[in-house]
Structure prediction request, 407 residues.
Amino acid sequence: MPPMPIHIPGYRFLHSPGPTHVPEAVLNAISRQPMDLGDPRVDAVTAACENGLRQLLGNPQADVFLYAANGHGVWEATTVNLLAPGATVLIPGTGHFSESWAVMSEALGVRVLRTPYREGYPLDAAEVAQVLRDDAIHEIVAVFAVHTDTASATTNDLAALRQALDDTGHPALFVVDAVATLGAAPLDMVALRANVVLSASQKGLMTPPGVGLCVVDAQAFAVSVANPRPRFYWDWRLRQSEHGYRKFCGTPPLNLLMGLEAALGLIAQESLDAVWARHRQLADATHAAVQAWRTGGALDFLCRVPEARSVSVTAVLVDVDAAHGVLPEDVRRVAREDFQVAIAGGLGPFAGRVFRIGHLGDLNAPMLLGCLAGIEGALVRLGVPIGRGGVEQAVNVLNRAPVSPRG
Ligand SMILES: Cc1ncc(COP(=O)(O)O)c(C=O)c1O
Prediction:
């Protein structure tokens, strides 16, 4: 790897699906001095974050638990609060992240039921309904559903899952991983009757990594109160407190909270509808570019169902033979080193098979066009056969008026 040049003129474009680009207002907020823990402004910052998240999820009543943690931390928080050792959870297969959460839950002594993930497809709510129907004695405490599985870049139909729970009359809690969707796609906790939504700061929330969150309704909180599992740092019961120090089980990650407060303020200022419409349009533009490139025969969408393609991230399969031996990692390297566009690689079963374009968070049309042009440049430089005109197709989409996908 050549040494990093000391000065790169202009910007390096960050198009990983998290961490994402951090807006100036958030960077400025984070760069303030921390406060002493008795300063009343500490509580004000925390309250602003809690209220902003309640607004984002349309649930003014929910408890918000904020952690100095990443997404894995709030997975663990959710599992240990809701499930005693030996208790049963259903984790429908959505790809790499559902499986990682399942493996973690098993490590914590939980019995995990799964439905299969089929490469290229979102989860099948009918299969979930069948597992719920088979559970006549209602052993399943909760269904843990990943909204967008960031590795497969596929979004799952949460309303269909809610319907599966309702149709079968199963009382399991409905828990949603919105790590890749909060702040990018509509998610109405009340309409879905989702009992817990978890997420993290570093994607649609436009804040550096380090804050995880669980938004919890009264029913899920009651299950956590009745759960005999020993726990401490993650314990919602201990964190349901007026005192900032207890809310965080210690010192709050103050500067990240100041950043998150600023980011939530930016989302409110733009309006949720506008944020979601912008994400929809940037995703459509990315898909239009990939659609053009794929006609060259070497690239394709990993997600085969167009309406299930994520508004946050697009995974592009590389047929290495058709690409004359060029690997996804080669595309990443040339895009990063020669075109200053940072994109992501494949995770789990997709390692070495895909590159992923993040299009969520603090992004606008020219940033996305720069990203797509950089990738197109890398593909051309590497001699990957692509259909031309990808960037042009993206421009055509960006010239249409954005449409809000409020759901
Ligand atoms: C959908 C989803 N869930 C969970 C995680 C885990 O989050 P973290 O990497 O912050 O631990 C990720 C990370 O990308 C994710 O995309």
Observations:
- The mean pLDDT is 96.
- DSSP finds 15 helices and 15 strands in the chain.
